[in-house]
Write a structure and sequence with these properties.
Blueprint lengths: L1 E4 L3 E8 L2 E8 L5 H16 L9 E5 L1 H8 L5 E6 L5 H4 L24 E4 L15 H14 L3 E5 L8 H13 L4 E4 H4 L5 H31 L6 E4 L5 E3 H6 L7 H17 L3 E7 L4 E7 L2 E2 L1 E2 L2 E3 L11 E3 L3 E2 L1 E4 L5 E5 L5 E7 L18 H7 L17 H16 L3 H26 L8 E5 L3 H12 L4 E3 L6 H8 L3 E11 L5 H20 L8 E10 L6 E5 L1 H5 L3 H16 L8 E11 L22 E6 L4 E9 L8 E3 L2 E4 L4 E4 L3 E5 L5 E5 L10
Parallel strand pairs: 1-4, 4-9, 5-6, 5-7, 7-8, 11-21, 21-22, 28-30
Antiparallel strand pairs: 1-2, 2-3, 9-10, 11-12, 12-13, 12-18, 14-17, 15-16, 19-20, 22-33, 23-26, 24-25, 24-26, 27-28, 29-32, 30-31, 32-33
Helix pairs in contact: 2-7, 4-5, 9-14, 10-11, 10-12, 11-12, 12-13
């Protein structure tokens, strides 16, 4: 069973042999495990089994991310080296909005009075010029005890090279305060750059009690339901780790839900033999966009949570862990709209969530959300939303749109809805363009794969805006991330900073370091599956001397075990040229971080034999749907997805409905059902009503 807790819905997917059973239930914020148990019973009833028959659960959640964004973690202290107390407040001193004279930096996760220092020093070579003062350490532990902290983060300078002092502090705390949870930066993020490292260990400590409590409650509830099977967690890097590892390093769960979606899209890409895919995941709270090349999601080792300025790097909270690289914006079905001082429509990042939800839910929400606009524009069937489990109220949507947008901008509810969805779609298209440019990619060469409850409603319009020709909407798109959990391998990436110039490469030192990292990563995977075959992947993060940031360079096992400076330089220059269109002659290259990823083999896939367009699918009547590209209401054919047969065709304007989502086909497109159930959308070649610009 795969379970994805989102900001609005909790998605549950049960896989039994070759059959899948799924459901969406509203997320229960006060006790997220309640929604899981509810959804589990629903899918088990559909499959005709009992919960006790489940033999594996894979879980992803936004709880860690939301706790950081909403600042509702544990009472936490940071212990750091004397002189470095204010690192997480000073940040990197970069201005992410250069010309904003009133620029306000996000507050650090911990205020100054919760940050403590101790006299000690480890230098940039890992040597110890100043030993730790044990008497001072005892006094510091007493201060921590008196203040009543639940969790402590320990981040000392250069501990990624030598963790001896962090271990001493940990031992002193553990002896006196066994009930306090402790996080070490040398374990959580053993990488250079103290701001990112300190921030990451603080984030881990901040959410550790919350996540440990939740995971413990979840295990208890499952046992009450007679579910006695292993529970694994999806991590942000796109793999699966044990529940014990997740409880120890909960910061690795940040972005775990979106990571499952990227794995799901990569699996579809492999079935279709696609090497360039744009993954588009739009749920109730956010939209996520990810580039997938050669059927592998792009990864990074640093990303930001809770950006205060949309699209602005540096305006968020940096987390230094392996993560699938994606851009995320507050544009989901529950994202709320308003009019700013310049009389422009703004959407998100605030969301109605599931409590109270959009105005159309009739649960007390009175602000217009994206779902309200989609309903007023005819994209949603008010009587068949979420499989008919939630009856939508069109009049409430119209009232909210009119009150918040229409009255201010002097327009009717439908025009306000049109403006709202165009703003949302343009925000998402702009995010995709920026992400592609930053990675040196041309989206015109890409195929979009859309999933998440709201994505199929907006994906075709995004393709029109981005110039993307092909769009795939896979079966189970409404619960795509949860399905992705079932496709993910067991994996763990270990990394460590070890600065080295390429001109002074020490092959023995490098091979020893990578072997240690590989052993560490393999141990995590073995804790999940003792018998599995494990593959190893390696990376070096490299840059030209004097540059401020690195690019990841993939290494083969042979290149990791037998390091060679000339080979490394060739690999670096090839990647650098692909990104920036040039290389720099005569400049030395530096390596700052080394990484080893242990993973079980990817799930095997069967290639899809594409179907030719055949007969038109049987329609269930028509309904009026607003086509944004045409700027007018169209008469759209309504087709039930489960009635479509392989090769059957649907020409836009049309609506393809199913329990968990709705696919909108504008006048510019037509869709074909492929043998695996995917709806394959392409521009109409003949009989096209009008080519959308």
């Amino acid at each position: 069973m795969g379970v994805d807790i989102g900001g609005t819905f909790t998605d549950v997917v049960l896989e039994l042999d070759q059959a899948q059973f799924s459901t969406k239930v509203l997320t229960t914020y006060s006790a997220p495990e309640d929604a899981i148990i509810d959804g589990m019973h629903q899918v088990c009833d559909k499959a005709g089994i009992t919960p006790a028959d489940i033999d594996q659960i894979i879980h992803g959640t936004t709880l860690a991310t939301n706790a950081l964004i909403e600042r509702r973690g544990a009472r936490t202290a940071l212990i750091t080296t004397a002189g470095f107390r204010d690192v997480i407040e000073m940040r990197t001193e970069s201005r992410f909005e250069q010309y904003d004279l009133n620029l306000s930096l996000p507050d650090p996760l911990l205020p100054r009075q919760q940050r403590y220092t101790i006299t000690e020093r480890i230098d940039a070579r890992g040597q110890v010029p100043i030993e730790l003062d044990s008497a001072e350490l005892d006094r510091l532990v007493s201060q921590i005890e008196e203040a009543g902290y639940e969790s402590v983060a320990i981040g000392l300078i250069h501990s990624y090279l030598n963790d001896a002092h962090e271990r001493q502090v940990q031992q002193a705390l553990a002896r006196r305060l066994p009930q306090v949870m402790i996080s070490l930066s040398s374990e959580v993020s053993p990488q250079m750059r103290e701001y990112e490292r300190f921030n990451t260990v603080v984030a881990n400590a901040y959410i550790k009690p919350l996540m440990k409590s939740y995971l413990g409650r979840l295990q208890g509830r499952l046992q009450q339901e007679k579910v006695d099977c292993p529970v694994f967690l999806m991590h942000s890097g796109g793999g699966i780790i044990s529940i014990e590892s997740a409880a120890e390093f909960p910061v690795r769960l940040v972005e775990s839900g979106p990571a499952g979606g990227a794995v799901f899209a990569a699996h579809i890409a492999a079935r279709y033999g696609l090497d360039k895919v744009l993954s588009f995941d739009m749920g109730g709270t956010t939209a996520k966009i990810c580039l997938i090349k050669d059927q592998t999601p792009k990864t990074s080792r640093v990303f930001e949570v809770a950006r205060t300025y949309r699209f602005k790097k540096g305006s968020g909270m940096p987390i230094s862990i392996p993560v699938i690289d994606m851009v995320e914006i507050g544009a989901g079905g529950g994202s709320l709209a308003s009019v700013d001082a310049m009389r422009q429509i703004r959407v998100g990042p605030q969301s109605a969530g599931s409590e109270p939800g959009p105005a159309c839910y009739g649960r007390g929400g009175d602000k217009p959300a994206v779902t309200d606009a989609d309903l007023v524009l005819g994209k949603l069937d008010p009587d068949n939303f979420a499989g008919g489990s939630i009856a939508l109220q069109v009049e409430r949507s119209s009232e909210a749109l009119q009150a918040e947008l229409g009255q201010v901008l002097d327009m009717d509810a439908q025009t306000a809805a049109y403006g709202l969805v165009e703003v949302v779609d343009e925000n998402m298209a702009n995010a995709a363009r920026v992400h592609a440019v930053e990675n040196g990619e041309d989206l015109a060469e890409y195929t979009m794969i859309a999933f998440g409850g709201a994505a199929p409603l907006h994906a075709a319009r995004l393709c029109e805006k981005l110039g993307v020709e092909r769009l795939l909407v896979p079966p189970g798109a409404g619960v795509g991330s949860a399905i992705g959990f079932l496709r993910a391998p067991f994996s763990f990436e270990a990394n460590r900073s070890q600065y080295m110039k390429l001109s002074q490469l020490d092959p023995e030192r490098v091979s020893t370091l990578l072997q240690e990292l590989e052993n560490e990563a393999r141990a995590f995977v073995r804790s999940c599956d003792e018998q599995a075959e494990i593959l190893a992947e390696f990376k070096a993060y490299m840059r030209y001397s004097g540059q401020g940031w690195e690019i990841p360079i993939a290494l083969t096992s042979e290149q990791a075990r037998q390091p060679d400076a000339a080979t490394y330089l060739q690999l670096f220059e090839k990647s650098y040229h692909a990104l920036f269109g040039r290389t720099v002659e005569g400049m030395d290259v530096e390596i700052t971080v080394w990484a080893a990823n242990a993973t079980t083999p990817a799930h095997s896939v069967s290639p899809v034999q594409l179907a030719e367009a055949g007969a038109h699918a049987r329609t269930q009547g028509t309904r009026e749907v607003f086509d944004a590209a045409l700027g007018e209401v169209t008469e759209a054919a309504v087709v039930l997805r489960h009635d479509m047969q392989a090769g059957q065709c649907v020409k836009g304007p049309a609506v393809i409905t199913e329990d968990e989502t709705t696919i909108i086909i504008p006048a510019s497109r037509q869709g074909i059902r492929q043998p695996d159930g995917c709806i394959d959308l392409m521009p109409q070649v003949e009989g096209q009503r009008r080519r959308a610009s």
